[in-house]
Amino acid sequence: MAAIGASIRLAAGGSLFSRRRTATRYGGIQKRGRFFAVSTETVGRGTGFGGNEKVVKKTMNQKTVKEETEVKPKIYANPEELPEFEEDKKLLKDYFEECKEIIRSDGGPPRWFSPLECSSSTSPDCPLLLFLPGIDGTGLGLIMHHHKLGKMFNIWCLHIPVQDRTPFNELVKLVETTIRSENLRSPNRPIYLVAESLGACIALSAAARNPNLDLVLVLSNPATSFSKSQWQTLIPLLDMMPDQFPLNLPYMLSLPTGNPLTMLMDNVVKSGLLPQTIEDLSRNLATLSMYLPVLADILPRETLRWKLNLLKSGAAYANSCLHAVKAQILILCSGRDLLLPSQEECQRLQKALPDCEIRKFEESGHFLFLEDNVDLVTTIKAAAFYRRGKQFDCVSDYVPPTPCEFRKVHESIRWILSATGPVMLSTLEDGKVVRGLEGIPSEGPVLFVGYHMLMGFEIVPLVAQLLMERNILVRGIAHPMLFVKPKGGYLPEMDPSNFDIFRLMGSVPVSGASFFKLMSSKSHILLYPGGAREALHRKGEEYKLFWPEKTEFVRMAARFGAKIVPFGVVGEDDIAEIILDYDDQMKIPGRREEIERITKQFPKARADASGELANQQMYLPVMLPKFPGRFYYYFGKPILTEGMKEELRDKEKCDELYLRVKSEVEGCIDFLKRKREKDPYRNLFSRVLYQASRPGSTSPFHIPSFDI
């Protein structure tokens, strides 16, 4: 969230089409009050929506981007009480129920349809998302994500009827025609292609044929590895076996594990959703068994034979044109994919594609989008893959975490909060120091300026508590390494997903433009002038500030009348001791070259810096953990800059305010270092005993400390 941060892994881990002026025909499918808008368009014809035939009508709620991204009050205060799943989230049984309906009178060519249940929440400025299905062809593979995707995208889903026999190249042409026509209508917005297995081959092929279009591909377990999979051996088997032999989809799914019910129940167990009673277990088994015939209807024997051949030709076609793909790509790969060697294939594709990132789901199976513990929207946001324009805008394209997302974030960082027992003090307008964050200004722009502790360990409690207690979402100015793919690709030991939690919680890359935009939007901004040099300091440099000589952040704050909140934090010396710092490692044979190589892969946060601050080498100090102590935060009295814009044009006045802020930060650190000596709960053991003796006091933020 700042120049360098603690690597915390996030545990994850539909709309109505806007009215078009191209003539087309619609058909309606209704089931229990749920509608789809379905185009009966044939392959190769125009793909515009809106026409003069009967249309399923639904009024769109024209929400602005601001309304979509506002943080609503008092919803993050108690993370344990936040909902585990988003409201209106569909379940796996809904997928089967709607599959039964959509294939009941299934005929005609492939066509696009749009889920309408979320259309009222979609802004017309949102980008278009085209979903390309896997081997099932229903187009309902994102049903568990429609409720969230519909708030950020206009969604079109490709439906390939059960009896359709459209060859692969014609499916590619259908998608190609669609993306070209939509690009002409909205040339300044990206088009998203979200696809799984077979659909991923279609997406890659369409992207290769249109390298100049602004496409973003999100691919789940691409079937480009079909030739290396077990599916490859089934094609001659299907040709040889008599029709009486039960070679349909349920049977095929049973081949890797012995039984389809076993596979589905394994998914239940590994997701932690195993029923606690035999009665519940029996009910779930009955439900799973009930839907096996639906799978057989989705892919009967002849359709399965056709789809396997389609996979074979599609994989060959996509692999032959990978060199021409220029799109931005995010590949989602499962660790337990029993149908395709997805992990190996994702690594191969990342090396072959110039702009490609990977996110791994170690405990997931092949049908990634139909698993409860997978959140596609969170993954896209955390990877910084959501944008509405040609370039990613860290301010206008940012979507704050939903309550469910913050609950997952909080669960993943709970151990940090428990281990460090943060104490937070703030200063009121009258100068009184109080426990808690009451002294933090609610209205922005607000600029937090402080000390960057070893490895940035202080960031997690700071951001979490500001959001829980004051409903303030802090936008941290971060090192470019969180956003920029290094030259030559990521090193094996560097997993970009380690930084997803920071991007999800609002980090922005350090730059003058980012700072200006955040100030313009009246945000609460977290700035560490010492940057990586401070966070990766040497032995004996604890609590020493490494600030630049330039005073630009003071002038920028005054330009927007921002309130500057200086703060100090201590506690790093209570959790770890540096054993090998930068100077030590540079003396180790081979290590110097390794550090220099890693540093050169990333752009410098301050290219014009000089002195100590210019020496921001990317290395990790070797540390010896200590029995945890406690983190202490002290936010000083806000410094008002409103009306000082003209005054601070004078360099001496600007330098004076800059040194005042720096002195305030140093004063906050000294205050905390003295006060913590009188804290009876500075040690983790004493805090554990306190919480054990008071069952109702579970929050680490509520444990007493020293007298102020």
Task: Indicate the topology.
Layout: E1 26-31, E2 34-39, H1 65-69, H2 92-102, E3 111-115, E4 128-132, H3 146-149, E5 154-159, H4 168-185, E6 191-196, H5 198-209, E7 215-220, H6 234-240, H7 249-257, H8 260-270, H9 278-290, H10 292-298, H11 301-320, E8 328-334, H12 342-352, E9 356-361, H13 376-382, H14 403-420, E10 423-427, E11 433-435, E12 446-450, H15 459-470, E13 474-478, H16 500-504, E14 508-509, H17 512-520, E15 524-527, H18 531-535, H19 552-559, E16 563-570, E17 576-580, H20 582-585, H21 591-601, E18 622-625, E19 632-635, E20 639-640, H22 651-675, H23 684-693
Parallel strand pairs: 4-5, 4-6, 6-7, 7-8, 8-9, 10-19, 12-15, 12-16, 13-14, 13-15
Antiparallel strand pairs: 1-2, 2-3, 3-5, 10-11, 16-19, 16-20, 17-18
Structural class based on helices, strands and sheet pairing: alpha/beta
| Fraction of helical residues | 25-40%
End-to-end distance, in Å? 29 Å
Order of strands across the main sheet: 1-2-3-5-4-6-7-8-9
Oligomer: single chain
